[in-house]
Fold each of these.
Amino acid sequence: MEGQFDRFKGFPWFDLIQDEIAFIGGAGGIGSWLSFFLARSGVQNIVIFDDDQIESHNTSGQMFKHSQIGLNKVKAVTDNIYEFTGKFITSYVEKINEDTPLGRYFFSAFDNMEARKNAFSSWLVNNLYCDNSIFIDGRLLGEQLQIFCIKRNDSLAIEEYQREHLFDDSEVEEASCTTKQTTHSAAMIATHMTAFFTNHLNNIVEGEENREVPFYYEYLIPGNLTVEEV
């Protein structure tokens, strides 16, 4: 669509983002919004994986319509992105395993640790000699957002991420089913993941680390403020 990106095509990262492929694991709360923001940012090629279907409770936190209940999530994501942007994306109704070929730019939008481990192992192997590749992992629990940005050429970050932040699902504290996710928190973490990605591309283009791409970022939605604090 001519003129679609006229309002921001002057950013240094814009030309590069149109030539790259973004891989997304998970099409739920984070992935449904993330795929939309990436497409709207100018990513021409998006590949998304998820084997789940949309249920009624998903429509309150994930970017799906009531009429899409019962559809495969990746099918609904594909339809929504085309409706909003006119772009077709590639989708797979399947889980990622250690043998899934993943490109240099991968976004982890999973809701379990096993999937993160499989995706990270595959990403490491497939991008062994690609210094510019990055793995961006988003984790959302109620009103707490966590994002990890691991660059393939940062061996210390890779080691710390595997040692400290890839644990078993049995070690994850389970939240109440009524405080897991809202639309605004899901959209918020997807926004930050998109921003860190464009920052990473900007640094590649300009040849220096002049934009922030943190190994770890956390944000807690403010709550329990007194009248005086407000």
Amino acid sequence: MPPTHRPSALATLLCGLAGLALLLTGCAPDTSSATEIPPVVDSHVVQAGNATDISRLSGRVKAAEHTTLSFEIAGKLERVAVDVGDPFNAGEPLATLDDERYRLVAQQRRAEAREAEASLIEKRQDYQRQSSLAEKGYVSDTQLDTARAGLDTAESRHASAVAALELAERDLAQTTLTAPFDGSVSARQAEPSERVAANQAILEVISDREGFEVETSVPETLIDALSTGSNHKVSFPALGGITAPATLTQLGTQPRSSHNYPVILALAEPPKGIRA
């Protein structure tokens, strides 16, 4: 009788597991239509590369060309022909000094110049005469040298008298303060009958020919983001909030206060009604 083979324990275990798997497969519900769980990823907010930060700064409008007018000489202010806000044209007289003293000085210098000219003519004729006689041997070299020295002195005195006359006439002309350009008066700092010193401010004026500009201050956190020639917009609350394009023309390198730098914006097309 052949020997009987008994299945090993391992084979029996594997068969049992296989049967259990078939059983579970047959009894498990269909999960093919179940919602899949998405994988977890990092999230980021993406900003457009051309996004621009907007910073609003306050400033003041001023004339692009402005100056303070004064007399180069001292005297008593006789007349101021314009007041604040008055327009004027280039070359128009704006203020005058009492010119009596300067007229008298000019008259004195004219007389001195005429006297010096007469002396020069006399010394020149004397030298020519002495030179002619020296050629004929009638006068010595010493006499000729003396005539030459007298002529040189007369020429120097005449030149000095002419220069003094020109200065006197210039001072006389300086008694009238004229407009350097077309514009208007922004401030008046002296009144008639007042004695004023040389270079003392009389009028502050602004020009019409260079338009307007805006002056503001930029904090140091923004200064590196600006460059000369860059374009910006300026809003005018006093004119109903209208805006105008402006170009950055000056960028300060030294702060006015602890952290603010001066900036100048030129207005290419100033809106109607704008004032400094």
